[in-house]
Write a structure and sequence with these properties.
mainly beta; Sulfite Oxidase, Chain A, domain 2; 3-stranded antiparallel sheet; 1 helix; about 5% helix; about 35% strand
């Protein structure tokens, strides 16, 4: 909470075919977390309490594209929605925005996360409807 935070106003998209327009969040850009890290790794695995993981290309976490958020619609993030802190990657399907984040591991190669191991698309671009493997 001591890190600089910002307000984020974005649309979010769920793999179950719903979209919520104009959602409001407050959190810390992952650019802030990574600003002093130099790496040749191109991928990341986000780890959550409870064993959930999700994989992402590192380029999708930097450049103002992702945040660790702790408020939604002006209120602290509720536990059932990932509180106290969750990842927010709004340009991908919402399963990539892991709840209850406890860490991020940078990796040289891409490995599937929790849902990707059960047949979800490895990337999850909602504009291409990348819901399941093979989409």
């Amino acid at each position: 909470m001591a890190l600089p935070s910002e307000e984020i106003n974005v649309d979010i998209h769920c793999v179950t075919r719903w979209t919520k327009l104009g959602t409001h969040w407050r959190g810390v850009s992952l650019d802030t977390f990574f600003e002093e890290i130099e790496t040749d790794n191109e991928f990341a695995m986000v780890h959550s309490y409870g064993g959930y993981t999700t994989n992402l290309p590192l380029e999708d976490l930097v450049g103002g594209k992702a945040w660790i958020v702790y408020e939604h619609e002006g209120k602290p993030l509720h536990v059932e929605h990932g509180g106290p802190a969750r990842l927010l990657v709004p340009h991908l399907y919402f399963w990539k925005s892991a709840k209850w984040v406890k860490g991020i591991t940078m990796q040289r190669s891409d490995e599937p996360g929790f849902w990707e191991n059960f047949g979800y698309h490895n990337y999850g671009n909602p504009w291409r409807e990348e819901r399941y493997a093979g989409d």
